[in-house]
Amino acid sequence: MFVGIDVSKERLDVHLRPSGEAFVVPRDNESVEVLAERLQALQPALIVLEATGGFETVAAAGLAAAGLPVAVVNPRQIRDFARAMGQLAKTDPLDAAVIAHFAEAVHPHPRPIADGAARMLGELVARRRQVLEMMVSEKMRRSHMSNPRTLRSVKAVLKVLEAQLKDIDGEISTTIRNTPAWREKDDLLQSMPGIGPKTARVLIAELPELGRLDRRSISALSGLAPFPRDSGRMRGRRTICGGRRAVRQALFMAVLVSIRYSLPIAETYHRLLVAGKKPKVAITACMRKMLVILNAIIRDQKPWQNA
User: Fold this and answer.
1) What is the C-alpha to C-alpha distance for residues 73 and 111, in angstroms, rounded to an integer?
2) How far is 284 from 224, CA to CA, in rounded Å?
3) Pairing state between β 22-26 and 46-50
4) Phi and psi for 251 in degrees, rounded to 5?
5) What angle do helix axes 245-260 and 215-222 make, rounded to 10 degrees?
6) 189: exposed, middle or buried (C-beta count within 10 Å: 0-12, 13-18, 19+)?
7) Nearest to 254, CA basis, from 209, 290, 296
8) C-alpha pair distances (Å), 146 with each of 87, 129, 134, 237
9) How far is CA 77 from the centre of its chain?
10) CA atoms of 105 and 235, how far apart (whole Å)
11) Hey, which of 70, 80, 227, 276 has its CA 20 to 30 A from 1?
């Protein structure tokens, strides 16, 4: 038995495969508990939900807490699968059926669902990113203004955003330092030259799998594994795609800092440049190497050590 659940703001569309049974339940805690009991009796091999901007959290957490195998997958994978199957129409019941078919055909691996504290940290880190984006937008607008009134308006907005950013940074620091496991992970990550508090927080919140996967899996999960583009005798450029954008952004800035201040990872960057690699390719390779090293540090519970 495979279960596909399409999540919307108000409801959950559920489809069972291969029986074809379908039903709808409200998206609230009580209804999720009833759904979990119903599915427990069926003993499904896998339950798959799409990641829908946080709406899936209540359902995924409730089902996982009931001991059910749950996988939350990227919506793009589901749409690509639907198009490959010739399913172009899109409604909530049809989406649930496609998700169930995807679960049966692909068997995505269930992953642990973040607990309440982890979700809160993730929301804080995401909100920090949103505030920074708003600040960049306001500064861009300011550069095109000359009227004193509009400039005062932008200045006032920036002042509010700066205060918000300060408060969020304080909450993130307090949350991490008050959680022993995160505090230990934070210290281990920052032991590597080039990794500061902000990068460590992003990795803790956005990449909880760090230290649990092998080097290839963690690189692919982050979107830093190069994929081939070959056909016949043609050998295309290896490129990266997908993965977790926030993690890549944090590692990108960490590598730039390492290069600027000649930290250990900069040696790899300069060696690749000498070998004829383009700067962007060399930076990406350094990001991947940094991630692999951090993965080993967390896995082995040993801080950075100079070779």
Assistant:
1) 10
2) 7
3) unpaired
4) -70, -35
5) 100
6) buried
7) 290
8) 53, 28, 20, 46
9) 15
10) 30
11) 80
Lowest mean pLDDT across 24-28, 136-140, 163-167, 241-245: 241-245
The pLDDT tens digits of the residues spanning 64-83 come to 878 889 988 888 889 999 99
Query: By C-alpha distance, which of 305, 294, 306, 296 is closest to 186?
Result: 294
Burial class of residue 7 (count of CB atoms within 10 Å of its CB; 0-12, 13-18, 19+): buried
Count CB atoms within 10 A of the CB of residue 263.
16
Q: Tally the residues of the chain.
A: 307
CA distance 17 to 68: 16
- Closest by alpha carbon to 13, among 50, 53, 66? 50
d(CA 226, CA 243): 12
| 288: pLDDT strictly greater than 70 | yes
Residues β-bridged to residue 271:
none
Round to whole Å and give the CA distance between 78 and 214: 26
Q: Tell me the per-residue pLDDT of 228-253, one tens digit each, with 9 for 90 and over.
A: 665 566 565 666 666 788 899 999 99
CA 116/CA 119 separation, integer angstroms: 5
Q: Does residue 166 sit in helix, strand or coil?
A: helix
Query: 64 is written with which tokens?
Result: 């996982």
Q: Is the pTM of this model over 0.85?
A: no
Residue with tokens 């659940």: 5
Edge-to-edge strand list for the sheet holding 46-50: 22-26, 11-17, 2-7, 46-50, 70-73
The pLDDT tens digits of the residues spanning 76-125 come to 889 999 999 888 888 888 999 999 999 999 988 877 666 667 778 888 88
Burial 63-94 (b: 16+ CB within 10 A, else e): bbeeebbbbbbeeebbeebbeeeeeeeeeeeb
